[in-house]
Amino acid sequence: MTSQTIPADWPACVRFRFLTIVGATVDVMPQPIVAAPDSHEAFCRGCDASYSSATGVNAELKKWAQAHSETCRALPRPTA
Length: 80
Ligand SMILES: [Zn+2]
Hints:
By secondary structure, the chain is an alpha+beta fold. The protein has one domain. The protein contains one helix and four strands, in the order E-E-E-E-H. The chain has one helix at 59-71, and strands at 16-19, 25-30, 40-44, 50-53. Strands 1-2-3-4 form a four-stranded antiparallel β-sheet, with helices on one face. Strand 1 and strand 2 (25-30) form a beta hairpin. The longest helix has 13 residues, at 59-71. The chain is globular, with a radius of gyration of 13 Å. The N and C termini lie far apart (28 Å). The chain binds zinc ion. Zinc ion binds at residues 44, 46-47, 49, 68, 72, 74.
């Protein structure tokens, strides 16, 4: 049996968070800079891969985040 720790710092802008198999996260958050008002991005904190949606948090965005979190083995960079 393995134990996993969920990062305690959850930024307010992150709407959904998927945990990868090595402890990084794939965060789904709005993209305020992009022109489309409901743009969201899924961003992997382990390998910097990302997937964008101009129409909000839709099924494709969640599907990408779920699939990426299941396979990515990149470790997040230590913060301290
Ligand atoms: Zn990744």
